Amino acid sequence: MIVGFSSNPPSLKIGLLKYNGGGDWYANPTSLPNLAAFANKYLNTNLSTDNGVVEVGSVELFDYPFVHMTGHGNVVFSDAEAENLRNYLIAGGFLHIDDNYGMDPYVRVAMKKVFPELNFVELPTNHPIYRQKFTFEHGLPKIHKHDDKPAQGFGLIYEGRLVVFYSYQCDLGDGWEDYEVHKDPEEVHIKALKMGANLLQYVFDH
Question: Fewest 10 Å CB contacts: which of 71, 102, 144, 170?
């Protein structure tokens, strides 16, 4: 169920995951506020436009139903952090990983530490995550160029539930940012926000 109504004070925040290893976890500072505002407008959610920052190993991780992770470089989880993130996801939490170009080889190793028994699987284009408020017939949209590879949406599925969505060769977070940052055309900006809204709606409905 989509949470909250705009007439009430904001009750939930999107979490931004702070991790070790030297990667720029803090990239795209305007992206999550813009996504929250878009979801409030089009999904009737009641999200704060001031996102939270939460460390991988923190108990506060469990306060966030939706956590976003981004960056360009290295990602390192300690054993305790990997266990905490695993427990959070098994307990009903959700992680969106957005490769901001360059983190792919590192995040795959880090997430293998969290779920050694799972592998990322590419979600089919008819997966419900692409069929929420907004429909993406061809799956994950391509927002930024990178290596001219197609955008791919991968998932980690634990006991039948999608617990991690990994957007690769796409850069949704860049597309969510203020116009002045990347100067994306309006249609690209809106397309990225629509896909982000789908992620939020999927999490709140599942």
Answer: 102
Cross-strand bridge partners of residue 71: 99
CA nearest to 195, candidates 181, 175, 177, 178? 175
Helix boundaries (H) for 115-159: none
Three-state secondary-structure class, residue 17: strand
| Element holding 167 (H helix, E strand) | strand 161-168
Farthest CA pair distance, the chain: 44
Task: For residue 61, give the nearest of 97, 18, 31 by alpha carbon.
Answer: 18
- pLDDT in 10s for each residue of the chain, 206 residues: 233 333 345 579 999 999 999 999 999 999 999 999 999 999 999 999 999 999 999 999 999 999 999 999 999 999 999 999 999 999 999 999 999 888 999 999 999 999 999 999 999 999 999 999 999 999 999 998 767 789 999 999 999 999 999 999 999 999 999 887 767 789 999 999 999 999 999 999 98
Domains of the chain as residue ranges with CATH: 15-205 (3.40.50.12140)
Instruction: Read off the DSSP letter of residue 62.
Output: G
- Confidence (pTM): 0.93
Helix axes 104-114, 79-90, angle to 10 degrees: 70
* Phi and psi at residue 128, to the nearest 5°: -55, -25
117: tokens are: 């028994």
Radius of gyration of the chain (CA): 16
Position of tokens 């992206």? Answer: 31
